[in-house]
Amino acid sequence: MGVNTGEKMLTNEEREMVRDLILLPYIDTMVSKSMKEIQHSGNILSRSYLLAGRYVQKRVVQDVYRLRQELKRRNIKVIEDTQDDFITYSMIYFRGYQERFGMTRDVMRTEISLRLSRYTADLGDVLKEQMI
């Protein structure tokens, strides 16, 4: 049955994986919109900003792929459910059970900001390595 044979409930690690899988498409959308604005800005550093945006998008795609593979291996499926003004819901199907998972807009904003900060820090590390 996978990693959690005998366990019925989702682990904290699995909940974090589900949360990230839900948030990553929002990050991709935000970065895409930002990149479109940059393309039309006439900013002299627009090429550099676009390269940074592409780096973040590439990392997002890699993370989504990795999360989908790991959740599939653990027999966990996530499906977008409904949204209201303040909460986004998804259905999680796992090991013969199901659960409705909700996140408030404020939590989503905070988590997205934290994740974008990590991607930016990673890009900074890559650039530092290139300058040495």
Word description of this protein:
The chain has helices spanning 12-39, 46-73, 105-131, and strands spanning 76-83, 87-94, 97-104. A hairpin with a 3-residue loop joins strand 1 (76-83) and strand 2 (87-94). Helix 1 (12-39) runs antiparallel to helix 2, helix 1 packs across helix 3 (105-131) and helix 2 crosses helix 3. It is globular and about 55 Å long. The protein has one domain (12-131). It is built from 3 helices and 3 strands, in the order ααβββα. By secondary structure, it is α+β, with helices and mostly antiparallel strands. Residues 1-5 have low confidence and may be disordered.
Give the topology:
Blueprint: H1 12-39, H2 46-73, E1 76-83, E2 87-94, E3 97-104, H3 105-131
Antiparallel strand pairs: 1-2, 2-3
Helix pairs in contact: 1-2, 1-3, 2-3
Compact overview of the structure:
With 132 residues, the protein is α+β, with helices and mostly antiparallel strands. Helix content is 63%, strand content 18%.
The coarse silhouette is globular
Specify Rg, calculated over alpha carbons: 17 Å
The number of E-state strands comes to 3
Strand order in the largest sheet = 1-2-3
| Mean pLDDT level | 92
Structure annotation, total helices: 3
Order of helices and strands: HHEEEH
How many structural domains in the coordinates? 1
Name the features.
globular; 63% helix; 3 strands; disordered N terminus; alpha+beta; three-stranded antiparallel beta sheet; 132 residues
